[in-house]
Amino acid sequence: MPRIACLHTIDSNAAVFDAALQTTGLTGIHLYHTVRADLLAAAEREGGLTPAIAAETAALLRDLSAQADAVLLTCSTLGPAVESASRDVAAPVLRVDAALAAEAVKAGGQVVVLCAVATTVEPTRRLFEAAARATGAQIGVEVVPQAWEAFKAGESDRYRALVARAADAARDAGARQVALAQASMAGAAALLPADETPPHQPDGRPRRGDRRRPGRVADPRDGGEGRSRRPLTRPLRPVRWKSGSTHRGEP
Fold first, then answer.
1. CB 142 within 8 A of CB 170
2. Among 61, 87, 89, which residue's Cα sits nearest to residue 75?
3. Are 57 and 86 in contact (CB under 8 A)?
4. Strands 70-73 and 93-95
5. Which phi-psi region, left, alpha or beta, contains residue 136 (left: φ > 0; alpha: ψ -120 to 50)?
6. Burial (0-12, 13-18, 19+ Cβ within 10 Å), 240
7. Average pLDDT over the chain, rounded to an integer
8. For the chain, which domains are there?
9. Is pLDDT above 50 for 210?
């Protein structure tokens, strides 16, 4: 049975990735989760990813690769550590947001990338700008105001609502694509109309369909009129998960 090791910095992201695996319908794959909230907390204290934090992250990723067929780093703040961690290891070490960036810039145009935590901004900007060189997409990276404070306070519904509102505002401002940079934001996609669901971790794929903006006159290039908005308020279904080697820290 293939084993995929996931390195998270937020406990709740393990359930997000277990749920994503279930939706694929794939069987015979085992995810196991290591949570190191202390690494993100250290980056927040330092104002970003430092060489020492990157080195510790890379060493951990290499250790995980010895026990797995592949390793996924799900924290965007720590993403640059993958470059050094992936050298001279038998199993591939991947940053999840790399696939997200490739998908988001595919069609070119203006791409707005939403982040919740400030330490994610620069690693995310570099990643998306590198991906955009192939398509000519214009990248804007924004922090959702008050979102991270809501998340750390345990206000999950408010967190998702703030992210969804920011995604809506970016679309209204003319973004062709809006990407949710952090895995913890995935639940916000359920609060948006199905034809506007942005690419997000761990899915990374926008839903196909009409890209017209509900609630306003559509761009003539879309070939039709806008449709009225329908609210989506159903909560995420809770998912049980079993941890592997898990170090718990602040959420």
1. yes
2. 61
3. no
4. parallel
5. left
6. exposed
7. 81
8. 3-96 (3.40.50), 98-222 (3.40.50.1860)
9. no
> Nearest CA to 228 among 214, 243, 239?
214
Element (H, E) at 45: helix 37-46
Contacts 24+ apart (CB under 8 A), 219-222: none
pLDDT one-digit tens code per residue, 48-98:
999 999 999 999 999 999 999 999 999 999 999 999 999 989 899 999 999
Q: Quick one: three-class SS letters along 134-182?
A: CCCCEEEEEECCCHHHHHHCCCHHHHHHHHHHHHHHHHHCCCCEEEECC
pLDDT digits (tens, 9 = 90+) for 161-177: 999 999 999 999 999 99
Counting Cα atoms < 13 Å in the Cβ hemisphere of 5 gives 21
CA dihedral 4, 42, 250, 58 (to 10 degrees): 10
Edge-to-edge strand list for the sheet holding 177-180: 138-143, 110-115, 177-180
CB atoms within 10 A of CB 105: 27
Amino acid at 192: L
Q: Is 108 left (phi over 0), alpha (psi -120 to 50) or beta?
A: left
| C-beta atoms surrounding 192 within 10 Å | 21
